[in-house]
């Protein structure tokens, strides 16, 4: 018996009609299901991203209680919705009141009352606002919590809006840590009993003399005095480094905060400023993945050619800083370098920052930039296999190794101020190395000052 192979068309004829219809109905049904899922997802997303009313409720601030001369405290009104949210970048109090659907006349009264107590033009994204809103009668009270400064609040009265201001009580505690690197600097600081973020404060202070990307070594030792800031007795943030000693490859680096006129800066033990013409690295924390070379195998072009820069590996979106004061030559697409910023500096220097994902706002040719200013963000544009920054330096038209730049320091402590500086240096040295308690805040410390230096952790080594 011979078996005959049917063609697709012949086979389709023998398929029942209802199954042939299903062949077309199934894709249609799946498409409708996908549209339904998209609609449901968009509604859920809109509900969860909308600032009203899904937000964290807040406690009733004592300042509002002082404005309530009647017994109807907002916090005890069951129908009142209390919300707290951060300000979005560029958002104003007027914008928020518009979202709350407050009548223009009422909104103007709230703004005018708040403006008696705070500068509303200084609202920042880390500031927050709280609203006490009655769905039946509208806004009952509005509160501004200004980061590090205080609280302003207004309350609706029969005669109109009444406001007040309560500054935070600010206190500063000076902490002392001593440690030794057995792993990373962050880990050494944790072992010593501090916050890992102290590592970034230290990197900022020593950024002109020590590249925290490549210079740190196991066995390095450090001592640091730094501030922690408390508002109304509650921890708020890290302050600044007051004094720092770091021993790297047998060389001790010292840094002391000191005011010269109206400028505050860091100086070494001899009164020489740490700030120099060039930063050692265009990123605060990263790693070197490729060095300056006259002959390097290009991972994309698959051939040997010069590599006139230093590659720093970092996640996409990491901030890139200009390494010296200067003027932007160009900010745009530059062939294989992708999105590139080029900056002209004094003494014939030009620095280039390649493969960026995007530029900083208002980055354009002719713009003046200051050392440490963010000019763009790490990416992989152009001929790149992964996210990184290619940092290059020219002097008088010739490429030079960025790691070989010898920085030129700024002016030292003036001769007339030197005795005062040396006395302050010695006082901070005793606190750093001997644990002596500081009897007053370091120069420039604001607010109420708590009892100074905490004892160094024994587990920190050093």
Instruction: Provide the residue-averaged pLDDT.
Output: 77
CATH-level-2 architecture of the largest domain? Roll
Unreliable stretches, pLDDT < 50, 5 or more residues?
A: 46-63, 65-78, 441-462
User: What about the largest sheet?
Assistant: 10 strands, antiparallel
**Helix-strand category:** alpha+beta
What does this protein look like?
With 462 residues, this protein is an alpha+beta fold. The chain has helices at residues 8-14, 17-49, 62-67, 93-99, 104-115, 185-191, 198-205, 418-434, and strands at 81-86, 128-134, 138-146, 150-157, 160-167, 170-180, 221-231, 234-248, 251-260, 263-267, 287-290, 293-297, 304-307, 309-313, 319-321, 326-333, 339-344, 349-359, 368-369, 374-378, 388-395, 398-400, 448-449. It folds into four domains: 8-49; 62-167, Roll (Nuclear Transport Factor 2, Chain: A), CATH 3.10.450; 171-276 and 411-460, Roll (Nuclear Transport Factor 2, Chain: A); 287-404, Glucose Permease (Domain IIA) (Distorted Sandwich), CATH 2.70.70.10. The protein contains eight helices and 23 strands. Strands 11, 14, 15, 16, 17, 18, 19, 20, 21 and 22 form a ten-stranded antiparallel beta sheet that branches. A six-stranded mixed beta sheet has the order 10-9-8-7-6-23. Strands 1-2-3-4-5 form a five-stranded antiparallel beta sheet. The radius of gyration is 31 Å and the shape is globular.
């Amino acid at each position: 018996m011979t078996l005959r192979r049917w063609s697709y068309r012949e086979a389709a004829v023998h398929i029942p009609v209802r199954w042939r219809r299903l062949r077309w109905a199934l894709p249609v049904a799946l498409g409708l299901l996908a549209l339904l899922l998209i609609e449901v997802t968009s509604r859920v997303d809109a509900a969860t991203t909308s600032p009203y009313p899904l937000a964290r409720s807040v406690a009733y601030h004592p300042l509002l209680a002082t404005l309530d001369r009647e017994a109807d405290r907002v916090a005890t009104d069951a129908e009142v919705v209390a919300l707290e949210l951060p300000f979005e970048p560029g958002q104003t109090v007027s914008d928020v009141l518009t979202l709350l659907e407050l009548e223009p006349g009422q909104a103007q009264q709230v703004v005018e009352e708040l403006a008696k107590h705070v500068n509303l033009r200084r609202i920042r994204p880390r500031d927050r606002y709280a609203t006490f809103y009655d769905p039946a009668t509208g806004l009952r009270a509005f509160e501004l919590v200004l980061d590090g400064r205080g609280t302003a609040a207004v309350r609706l009265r029969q005669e109109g809006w009444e406001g007040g201001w309560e500054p935070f009580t600010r206190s500063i505690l000076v902490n002392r840590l001593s440690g030794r690197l057995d792993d990373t600097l962050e880990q050494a600081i944790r072992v010593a009993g501090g916050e890992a973020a102290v590592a970034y404060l230290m990197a900022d202070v020593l950024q002109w003399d020590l590249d925290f990307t490549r210079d740190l070594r196991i066995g390095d030792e450090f001592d640091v005095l730094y501030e922690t800031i408390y508002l109304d007795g509650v921890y708020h943030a890290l302050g600044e480094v007051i004094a720092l000693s770091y021993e790297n490859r047998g060389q001790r680096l010292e840094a002391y905060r000191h005011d010269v006129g109206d400028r505050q800066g860091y100086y070494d033990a001899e009164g020489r400023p740490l700030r120099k013409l060039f930063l050692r690295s265009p990123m605060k924390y990263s790693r070197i993945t490729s060095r300056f070379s006259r002959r390097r195998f290009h991972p994309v072009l698959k051939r040997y050619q010069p590599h006139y820069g230093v590659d720093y590996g970092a996640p996409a979106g990491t901030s890139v800083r200009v390494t010296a004061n200067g003027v932007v030559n160009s900010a745009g697409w530059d062939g294989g370098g992708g999105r590139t910023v080029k900056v002209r500096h004094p003494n014939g220097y030009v620095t280039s920052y390649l493969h960026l994902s995007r530029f900083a706002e208002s980055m354009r040719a002719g713009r003046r930039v200051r050392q440490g200013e963010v000019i763009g963000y790490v990416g992989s544009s152009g001929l790149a296999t992964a996210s990184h920054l290619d940092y290059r330096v020219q002097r008088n038209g010739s490429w030079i190794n960025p790691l070989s730049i010898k920085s030129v320091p700024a002016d030292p402590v003036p001769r007339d101020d030197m005795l005062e500086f040396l006395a302050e240096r010695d006082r901070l040295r005793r606190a750093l190395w001997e644990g002596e308690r500081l009897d007053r805040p370091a120069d420039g410390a604001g607010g109420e000052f708590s009892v100074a230096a905490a004892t160094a952790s024994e587990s920190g080594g050093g």
